[in-house]
Known about the structure:
Layout: E1 6-11, H1 16-27, E2 31-37, H2 44-48, E3 53-56, H3 60-72, E4 76-79, H4 86-98, E5 103-106, H5 112-125, E6 130-137, H6 147-162, E7 182-184, E8 187-193, E9 199-207, E10 210-218, H7 225-234, E11 240-243
Parallel strand pairs: 1-2, 1-3, 3-4, 4-5, 5-11, 6-8
Antiparallel strand pairs: 6-9, 7-8, 9-10
GO molecular function: 4-hydroxy-tetrahydrodipicolinate reductase; NAD binding; NADP binding; oxidoreductase activity, acting on CH or CH2 groups, NAD or NADP as acceptor
Function: Catalyzes the conversion of 4-hydroxy-tetrahydrodipicolinate (HTPA) to tetrahydrodipicolinate.
InterPro entries: DapB_C, DapB_N, DapB_N_CS, DHDPR_bac, NAD(P)-bd_dom_sf
Amino acid sequence: MSDAAIRTAVLGAQGRMGSEAVKAVENAQDMELVAALGRGDSLKKVLEAGATHIVDLTVPDVTEDNVRFAAENGLHAVVGTTGWDGERLARLEALLEQNPQVGVLIAPNFALGSVLASAFAAKAAQYFESAEIIELHHPGKVDAPSGTAARTAELMGQARREAGVGPSPDATQKDPGGARGAVVEDIHVHSVRLRGLVAHQEVLLGSAGEQLTFRHDSFDRASFMPGVLLGLRTAASRPGLTHGLDGYLDLGL
């Protein structure tokens, strides 16, 4: 192992995503897994192991404290845990101003195909009258809508506002059961939880006489690992907060 290897600690190492991240880091020639923490393990183990980077794949209740610990101790962080709303992100940005050498990536999705699909959908959304999102995940997922769907809706909503495109036409007046789904940045988002699924998303765009669909499917959590490794390799060179893996990609859009 090279002395320049990225010394990585995985938090949430016993979970579905965490166990995949452990294997990915162990198999990366330019990285060294120095700690794999599960629920209840002290964060002090990260420092004792000499980590320079953390991967946080825990749960929303603890992720902010984990990233704060990393930033305060000069560790770069790659974060896939959901629950990072605007208030949490603002607190993190304020903390990083006090620790300007630290790079933090908050990524709702690490699958490169998903990141590209969201970026393409945001670009296309400004040219269509109607826009909706359907996200489909396994029934063990604790949040709805998914972080990926929320991030996609934010990107699409911003692009549509900048282009002067109003909300999608919708004559619905009664919806006591919430059939029209959640609304994020004027985009309706529908969540499906179904046994056998992993992570899937469709963006539907429509105008008179035509429809454009962007769909991405992750059939295995291994699909997220190239993005995790990209985050680890890039975070140190991108100090401050980056929200979304697209911030590390040269999309040229």
